[in-house]
Write a structure and sequence with these properties.
The chain is an all-alpha fold and 61 residues long. The chain contains 1 helix and no strands. Keywords: Membrane, Transmembrane, Transmembrane helix.
């Protein structure tokens, strides 16, 4: 009887870990997609700011 309880606990812990890591990897995948978009936007905005500032610097000369 006691062995069955131990086996059930081990099975439940394995199940919990599998579910936890599954959710974690899913969240990481979604974040990676969103982070790519966010970094792309930041990069484009920095480029535009630099481009505009260099244009305004040329107009001052």
């Amino acid at each position: 009887m006691y062995e069955n309880i131990v086996n059930a606990k081990i099975f439940l812990w394995k199940l919990v870990l599998i579910v936890f890591f599954g959710i974690l990897s899913l969240v990481r995948f979604i974040l990676r997609l969103n982070l790519d978009k966010i970094f792309k936007n930041i990069y484009e905005n920095k480029y535009l700011v630099l481009y505009n500032s260099s244009k305004s610097a040329e107009s001052f000369e």
